[in-house]
Amino acid sequence: MVGTRRASTSSSTSVAHGKDLIKQIQAAIATNDHATALERLDDFKVHAATTFVGNEEDELRLRREAAEHGVMISAATRDEESFERHASQAKAAYDACKRAPCKQPIERSQNEALIVGLNLLRLLVQNRIAEFHAELETTDDDVLKDQRVQAVLELEQFLMEGAYNKIAQRQNALPDPSYEYFMSMLMNTVRDEIASCAESAYGSLTGAEAMKLLGFANAQEFEKYANARDWTMDANGGVVFNEEVAPASARDIPAAALINQTLLYAKELERIV
């Protein structure tokens, strides 16, 4: 009996310190002090590994929250390797909470849909389509219905359709600010595709038309992009596309990559159907 009380007291003390570390992580994130947040996160991981006893509710919640903070810090610091590691930890924490042998089910984290949406966007940007769909299959329906996940599913659909203009329109309507980094990466790819299409379809465009088409809100950024593609700026701020651009048949086309991508989409569609 005495031993049980000691174990309970020790566990309570361990959880209390874990909660304090989580609060320190949150405070550091709130002030954009990501270096300190990462230090406290490392402190928490060591503390959890050495003092947490197993599958107690409070411990599972704290592990889950710590993993979520790791994902958000990684997104803010644009550390893709750290993001992938913490996203995997968050997924494991969600599963552990579902399977926990508790009297009452542990409530779902309010941030689960956000973390899932962010991870799906990362997989989409990295062209890891098979993993993207595998993630969908292992995600609960109520999470998939969340707008933070639906927004990414729409982007994937737009990519498959080649509806790049719709992706550009979503750039300023993100479901959460944390999506900005991966969305900017996706937008860079999409912008290049749109620019290539514009070069083939038009001889020139007004500045306003080109900025809208390419999703630029800043004229200086647009001019920098136009110069990088060797476009000529006219006196009115419009662009004249390079007339000496080689036709598609004469360009270096990554044939193997295109074939592999086409086969990958075909396999995914066959598996889905």
UniProtKB/TrEMBL annotation:
PROSITE patterns assigned: PCI (PS50250)
One cellular component (GO) term of this entry: nucleus
InterPro entries recorded: 26S_Psome_Rpn12, CSN8_PSD8_EIF3K, PCI_dom
Keywords of the record: Proteasome
BP-aspect Gene Ontology terms: proteasome-mediated ubiquitin-dependent protein catabolic process
Gene3D superfamilies for this protein: 1.25.40.990
Domain called PCI: residue spans: 86-257
Alphabetical list of Pfam families matching this protein: CSN8_PSD8_EIF3K (PF10075)
Record bears the keyword Manganese: no
Membrane in keyword set: no
Family: Belongs to the proteasome subunit S14 family.
Protein name in UniProt: PCI domain-containing protein
High-level lineage: Eukaryota, Viridiplantae, Chlorophyta, Mamiellophyceae, Mamiellales
